[in-house]
Batch of 2 targets.
Target 1
Amino acid sequence: MRKPIIIANWKMNFLRDQANLYVKKLIKKLGNKENIEVGIASQDLFLTDLIKLTENTPISIVAQNAHLENFGPFTGETSPKALANVGVDYVMLGHFERRELFNETNSTVNLKVRTALNNGMDVIVDVEELEQVAPVLEGVSEEQMQQIIIGFEPTFAIGTGMSASTKGAEDVAEQIRKTVRKLYGSDVADSTRILYGGSVNRDNLKSLIKQKDIDGVLVGKAALDFQSFWELVEIIENSL
Ligand code: PGA
């Protein structure tokens, strides 16, 4: 019922040709597979190239951040309205690195989430712990929850090679779903996708993806090499 999803979080890596080549390889391998959603979270500069390349393919293109206002004197920021305007599928908000390195708080993330939703964008909102779920969703309506994916990425696991245990990740995902149920009711909770992120690799993915509350993964390091990312896509496919 909830379509599995895997997102390559490229972070600030690759140059234009490398980004395009990676996505061309993905298009070729993926074909028209619709039983799994595959997304690429790229730095802003390459988004329009990638959107053009992936036209008429099932691949989703994801921005890694956006500002909390649509227009104005915010030198160097990216407008969520502009992201929607060029055809970005999702914006990821609240990633640990944004919080840690750029001082984003639950309240900034929440404002960003609301602006992105008001522009009709789909949002992947990241949390590092259960307690962040309610604050980042404040003011989000039941209807808007259809546009939200929640990414759970525990701080200790991001980029460290030390993934959460399968049980640890599933326990938190289950709690997150319970929180969504409390806030929005069962229908919304049952349809909201929850992703795990943090040192996902081919060894831990097999069991992570079988968990009942984990609907997909966000992958950093293991997605920097196309072949390694593709192996992860196949693992999810084979688990269906
Ligand atoms: P990682 O990154 O897979 O390298 O831990 C995940 C992320 O930051 O989304």
Target 2
Amino acid sequence: MKKSLLFLIIVIVSCYTSMSQPPMGQAQTNQPPDIFISLGTQNTDLVYKVNGRNGKVYQAYLGSKLLNTASLSQLRDAGHQAYQTYGNENLFEPAIRMTHNDGNPSLELKYVSHNSEKTDANTTLTKILLKDPVYPVEVTLNIRSFAAEDVLEQWVEIVQKEAKPVKIYNYASSMLHFDADKYWLTQFHGDWAEEMKMQESELTSGIKIIDTKLGTRAHMYQTPVFFLSFNEKSDETTGELIAGTLGWSGNFQLLFELDEKNSLRAISGINPFASEYSLQPGKVFKTPSFIFTYSDKGKGLASRNLHRWARNYGVLDGNKTRLTLLNNWETTYFAFDEPKLTGLLDDTKKMGLDLFLLDDGWFANKYPRNNDRAGLGDWQENKAKLPNGLGYLVKEADAKGVKFGIWIEPEMVNPKSELYENHPDWVLRFPNRQEVYYRNQLTLDLTNPKVQEFVYNMVDEMLTKNPGIAFIKWDCNSMITNPYSAFLKDQQSHLYIDYVNNLYSVLDRLRKKYPSLPIMLCSGGGGRVDYGALRYFTEFWASDDTDPLERVYIQWGYSYFFPAISVCNHITSWGKQSLKFKTDVAMMGKMGYDIQINELNEKELKFSQDAIVNYKRLSDVIWHGDLYRLISPYEENRAVLMYVNNNRSKAVLFAYTLNSRYGEAFNRVRLQGLDPAKTYKIQEINPSTEGRRPGPPSEGGSSVRSYTGDYLMKVGLSVGSATPLTSAVFEITE
Ligand code: DGJ
């Protein structure tokens, strides 16, 4: 690291300025020297080479740390331009494409300068300035390296100084090149209640695109994350790969193009679909960030890198604690009143939970929000349900010793609402076509400053009036169904981009005033989960599907890219499995409840109260520890994973048996991440309310046993039973 930094400082001083290309055959001595820009982390190097011959910047290397800086000068560039333009020698998918004022559709980018600055002890920001030699267009490649986490973040800034606006058609955040024998792409797709289904396939010649055009609730079908494995498929502990994700809460595009030489380019950014952007002279077009990590030890390490990065930099308050809660969505839907809610506050307390979260249905009077067909947008307490307002509930909660949280969906409107009646021009809709609805609602036009003000004020006024509100669930249940903004007039192709940027600016304002209020990101389940949004949110609702069998897969999927502290899992009445199974599944992330507490029998209530105590004791390891996925539900009839804290003194292991065939043997599981020299106590917690589980007892048993870390990692443990839909949780203590 130190060596490469020193090298960087040297190359900054020898900044290349000449843009002229020496004629063929000219003596090499007149040619400016090649410059190497090394963007290393602790274990990774990304190296760009400025070719002295033509002044262009190429990606020369991406992989494990090069131990000898002398190797840098031996790197070839293989023609892989770092930010490939259109209209020049490039005949494949470009990172950037624009048309100049004179109609010329080409761009050429040459190196001007670069500099590298340490933003803190762990983080270095490198800016590489590129310029078109003919047109006044500047592009800055930004690369932030997070040394300890082995994560790189890339984004781009585009500025033009022509007389009039310039149209840009492509504006990638990142372009990466690879030369391997084979490429395996792992993607995650789904729908409402079936998020994050993993699929892996070998890339073939041509283009593969993962994208969305949904605008809002943008990730309902595709999540902006991927693994790209090189040569062979990778597994948890072996294989070379990158794990990448785009921090953008709107339309995204991840494009993989395999060319005739078997070189692959991966281009990540905002989806250019219907989004050509008219860039005003002097204005900066800033792309969202592409975040990635390289691993030569499989997907497990890649996930741990991203999780650490996310806790330190990607998720709001990722290193802090979270509130356990009781939510009322599944138990009451829209049918509640003050006495009912007061009872739920009591239940929250009785369970030992921190907070009660009041969901949808508490607002609107002219068109009361008694179902999803009316009231959205009218954010006044419904007088029939809450005659004493939110303030009363906040006070009641306080008196009972619990906190109070509230659901909102401020970006949306039902046509049956006063908001729609009073401000039809604030709604995304075509002026001359019938409206198309999703969940009976429409999206507000956040490109309009008046709407931004409305959304900000709605949240701000609610929090000012009720300073005791300790939690928000921010929902977004519709995609953009009628993509037309009255405000944008003749710049409709700015809609998808401006919407997201303006959502972020509203959230920026709110976060300035309320920096640490926990807010759950929700979008009809996990329809909007990405690191662009998570800068403002402490956690996200992973899915409306809370059947714990399905949930194992959904949570497993998210675990590849998002840390456990950010993934909200609730115990509900979905699924016929035991309360223990539901509880054990919810515990692997941020646990909560959305179940009729008054229907729990005495044993179940006691089991839940104890489980919450256990969870609170273990949550530090789950939220802040390292995740090791041991057995994948995609490969076996069970799922086993564990979290280990930083100094390897405490761990927790979850084992879920999903199914089993007659005579199927579940072999011992070798643990990971422990200290081989330490001796650990293993204790099974959350014992079943039905007494001992059927089937062979696991070695943890109900009694405490001791093993060395070495034994646990080499010999392993039998965990869980062969009975379908059973589970076991082990607390592992030095
Ligand atoms: C969708 C969310 O995912 C649910 O949890 C719930 O909040 C409903 N919206 C409320 O309308």
